[in-house]
Amino acid sequence: MSTPVTPPAETGAAGDLTSPEKRARTGPYRVVVVDDHAMFRSGVKAEIGRTVAVVGEAADAESAIKVILGTRPDVVLLDVHLPGGGGIEVLRKVHEVNPDQKFLALSVSDAAEDVIGVIRAGARGYVTKSISGAELVDAIRRVADGDAVFSPRLAGFVLDAFSGSIDLATVDEDLDRLSQREREVLRLIARGYAYKEVAKELFISIKTVETHVSSVLRKLQLSNRHQLTRWATDRRLV
Amino acid sequence: MSSTKSPHLATEAVTPEPVEQGEPREPVEQPVPFTEPEPVEGPEPRPRATRVAEGAMLGGVCTGLARHLGVPVMLIRAAFVALLIFQFLGVIAYGALWLLLPPEPATAAPGIEAASRNGLRDQSRPKRRVDWGMLVALIAFGGGLLWLVQSSGFGISQQLFWPVAFACAGAALVWRQADSDQQKKWRAEAGGRVWLAPFVARGGWPALVRVIVGLGLVGAAFGIVLAQEGHIDQLPEVMAMTTLALAGLAVVLAPWLHRSRTALNQARADKVRADARADMAAHLHDSVLQTLAMIQRQSDDPKAVQQLARRQERELRTWLYGEESPETTLKAALTGAAAEVEDERGVPIEVVMVGDCDTSDSVQALVKAAREAMVNAAKHSGAEQIDVYAEVDDEHIEVFVRDRGSGFDLDTVSDDRMGVKGSILDRMQRHGGKANIRSRPGEGTEVRLEIMR
Q: Which residues of A touch B321 (CB under 8 A)?
């Protein structure tokens, strides 16, 4: 779990290997930690510093954007609540310049609309800050490899957001609904199953589980669904 | 809005329902871990009539009424427009409701509010799309009706019509300015001087233009009326006099306005300081200090420290970011049960819920069975964490309790282990549900509970 796995061959941008990417293939994953609590940053560094290389830190949105664009890490650990407009601001600004930058969101807040918000803004996963060091490294590896990381809680939010009360007439078949299989995968994740266990339970490969989760992520990000925004706004008022 | 589902409504109810009557065989009843079910009053309470800022065109009266009455908002708007035509009844009604209906209270959890205030979260809200088609239709409808009534001779006299129309439009502009989102905040800050706010506060040039145009329209209305009293050819003079009077009033009021503005700024600054203090209080909440003290005292017992930290985390999280769910829902009961087991046994329990429903006898039984499953997992499995997942859909409720602990062989469970048999399997059966235990030595345990709604 803690030994970094060499990422599979990149699909896009063949032949145009910038130096940071090259290093990622040989050395440990390069990570930037963005969080406004210095104590948390140093804690994370101490926990994961042996298996991944923490190449930068930032405490607010503005400096985070600078550091990320300057170092081009494999993964950015991004706090959802951040001075200067929150994690969403960082996601937007960085993706304007470098749309391939990968983010893993983490927070102590369980506010559904904020979590769904950063995912929709382009983060490839969400974990809570109480996650163990080993699990965090595993999540970083997954995100760096282009997969999505769903915690049980996020899976619950997504099932909630995509469930029930959809006006079938307004549904864009492709994007606005989860397939039966995707729903099954999400439910197992919400029940606390690790990807490996999900795969075993459904008699599919881990790669397939990852594909399903990535597809859910894509739907979450691309879906224009009215209800999704509506759901998020409603949450704010609960 | 959901904020109107006030939980205290339910607590007024008195007679608790009899719980689980058909249970004479229950050997040792666990101490009831959650509150008795209280019958909810009638069907879902209708939202109170408030003015709603979201989706408002003028004062949010129509949107609020529509929500209260449960009819489409366009219907109410059309009704007001229609009433307007006849002797301006609609305008009077609308104005009265604007004054009388309280603005919708907007509240969020303190953590969220503090985070918003300090710019830690994204503030841009999705832009409301104005339905231009509807708007144009409404205006055309109103205009047509007005023309019809006026030309048929049943309308009010031409002498009065334009002044009143001007005055209404002017007053609406000034009121709207005085009523916009920010003003609601200032209302709290500036105490009684609300009516001054549109003149005093900084709202940028659109606000200023709105107020000036509004006052101009009102002035024009007065001017026309005064001119009609005398001769129509005096109109320019009367208008000039009105303008002069307004200007004079402004000069006289200027120092006072200035003072009000200073007071308002002062009040605003005070409010900011008070907010900051409240945020601090949030962080240094009593219980946190308490927990820290206890952690220091028990620092040689890692298990106890973890338990304390975990409980504190849960408490703070609920307080800062939590959604307040009414006591009578499955969610509240299940998270409550999980929290109790967590405190008792010291094993973190993660609860994820999709959907929710009100409690009933069978839901209570489901929660009790789930609680028993959590206790078993915490007691026997040795797992570091327990995952609880509940899903409510139209037909049934499912609860999964899962651990990655030692697991066991179901066949070897002796009959005297009443926990599994009596409290889980039999209990579910009695309430027409199903319980399903999957476990193998070394692979953890998952208990699946299901009842129909």
A: 109-111
